[in-house]
Amino acid sequence: MHTFNGAKEYTPAEIEDSLGLISRAGRPQQPAQTQQSPAGRYVQQLAICEFTLQLQIESLKVDSFPIPKQSRPARATGAAINVATHLLGASFPKTAANMFLFSGGPCTYGPGAIVSTKLKDPIRSHNDLLNDSSAAKEFKKNQQYYQNIATKAAVNGHTIDIMIGSYDQTGLTEMESLVDKTGGSVVQTDSYTSAIFKQSFQRMFALRGDVEESAIAFNATLEVKVSNNLKINGLVGHGTSLLRKTPTVSEIKVGLGGTDAWKLGSVNPHSTYALYFELAGAASNSPFATFQFILQYQHLDGTRRLHVTTVQKNVSQGKPSLISNFDQEAAAVLVAREAVDKTMRDDSVDLLRWVDKILVDVCANFSRFIPNQASSLSMPPTLNFFPQFMYHLRRSTFVQVFNSSPDETSFYRHCFLTEDCTNALLMIQPSLTAYELDKEPFPVLLDSESIKMNRILILDTFFHLLIFHGSQIAEWRRERYQDKPDYEYFKEFLDLPKQEAAEILIDRFPLPRFIDTEEGGSQARFLMSKLNPSTSYKELDNLNAFANGARGAVGAVVFTDDVSLQTFMKYVNEAIVKTN
């Protein structure tokens, strides 16, 4: 048994020496292959240690050390991560490995501590990090501590996953580099006993599957080669730059720029990466540009594998051809990814102004209008939803941090940079489906007018799956009509959204929070916060109609100071026609 001081930051040499991983000649021992090797005492094959591991897990007990009143438990999370990372690095250097961190509360002791053990000291908030210089300084120090650990893990090809089961913040914002740099995953729940954690944890291992059919790749590296008429700006996603600069690397950096190769760590079917390029001017007279993506990784069976994808695109097209092939959904996700990356790397960036400038510039370049006449603006069909996506991006939890803790914001942003275009777009603009009696389910606008008293709505934000019952449906449900023999059809109607929700949950990782609520319920706020407030309290006519009982026609009144999509588009149109 070995004990380490939780207040000390150990070096790799100190840990290797303490654990006997350094030979008498001063050279590291060979990686653990057998039980007799020094490292084999700590890292063994599952077939050898499965029984012992299961026995240890089943015998775990709550910490018996007393916790003083009005105090938090002393947790040396930072020191534990440091020791575990160096132990794994000494045992399996440059070899694929996976480490799990189970965090049940904030680090309160030693390096990486985000708060003291005294409950009277609050855990840092977004406001503290923005306006309190001492809190911001401590945050940067802790962030740098975990970044150093993450870099060492990434170089060795090791992946770190973080499993959180706590009502309190645990310091994910400081620790996010551990998962971002190594390609790890984050599961954030209120408790380890919750269904969300249990099913998400099981799903993580289900992705691995059998050794031969595993969908997980480890210790992955991505290289990008392009023709001479292109330059590589960078990559936005979970990885680490390999700092390999070639003539095709641009001086303009986006995300992880200044290189054409990245260490990705763990890669699964959900992993998605955004790559940004620029035309190199007159470097080549060819109208075509060639991209080659070289992915190397270690399979679960230990073999090294290589995937090469080569694509050629016409880059000499003019505006008419370019806009006719414009993918506004992919463009919205790419803008959002760059916006998220900017706010994670530079707190001074005014994201709202940056997003607005992108929107106005794109629309001004491809729309038709008469200068200074907003009514003359005409957008091409392939661009008509792009402003709507930008509107919802401006209101999303990726840009707005109001009513979210730093850890929640980090969790949302981590998932957004992981998922593919479809799921990422769902995070920006959630889907809303309506259910009415004697009708098939149908999609409706993400708008306050979509709320009707005789309608059930299902909202999918990726992070939350919410079933909302209109006032009339909620009243019938409270009166238990679904339990009466003559109202069997009503029971089936109430079950339809639940069946749809169950189908959505099949492939979702991490598992979203499920919410069943009704109009006027406290948790209805999750729906109201996502809706376009076209019937807000500021619209006097709608409010009067609501007060006079015309509830079914006007939708719900949203009490918010946010501008509606209609008002937003009015200002955008005016800005576009004034650009020339």
TrEMBL record:
Highest taxon of source: Eukaryota
Task: Identify this protein by name.
Answer: Unnamed protein product
Species of provenance: Ambrosiozyma monospora
